[in-house]
Amino acid sequence: xxxxxxxxxxxxxxxxxxxxxxxxxxxxxxxxxxxxxxxxxxxxxxxxxxxxxxxxxxxxxxxxxxxxxxxxxxxxxxxxxxxxxxxxxxxxxxxxxxxxxxxxxxxxxxxxxxxxxxxxxxxxxxxxxxxxxxxxxxxxxxxxxxxxxxxxxxxxxxxxxxxxxxxxxxxxxxxxxxxxxxxxxxxxx
Length: 189
Fold this sequence. Notes:
This protein is mainly β.
C-alpha cells in the first residue's frame, strides 16, 4: 500500500499526536520508533531502531594481571566502536543497554593473546557481574605464539544492564597479553 506523508511530528515517550489520518507519520524521540497511520485513527510502529554496541582493541599488547587462579579479571583496554541504543564506556570497559534497548541480543567476542606457557585461559561474557556460561571459551596459549579465542550466544538484555568481557587462568600469578579483542552486542529480537 502506498500513501503520501501529510505531516511528520516528533513526540516524546508514549505521547502520540491525536486523530491520525491515513498517511500521517511521527517519530518518537525517546524510543527511536517511527509510527505511520495506514488506517484512519490508528498508529502502527513501522521501524524498530537497531540497537548495537562494539568495543575493540588493536594494540601492541595490553597486559591483564591474573593474581588468583579461577578468578575472572575484566578486559581493561577497550576502544569505543559504533553504537546505537547502547552506551559504550572505555573508562569501565563495558557497555550498557539504553532505555528502549531491551530485547534478545546476539553477543560475540574475539580475543587474540599470549600468556603463560601451557596455562589454560577462560574468557567469558558477563552481564551485571554474572558470568554467561554459554558465551565463553577456554584454551591453552603460549608465551610467544598468539592464540585466538571466540564465542557467540544469545542473551536477553534489559534496560540498564551492563555487559563486559573477562578472563581467568587456572593458576595463580599469571598474565594475559591482549593483542586484538572485540565485544559486540546486536539486538535481534
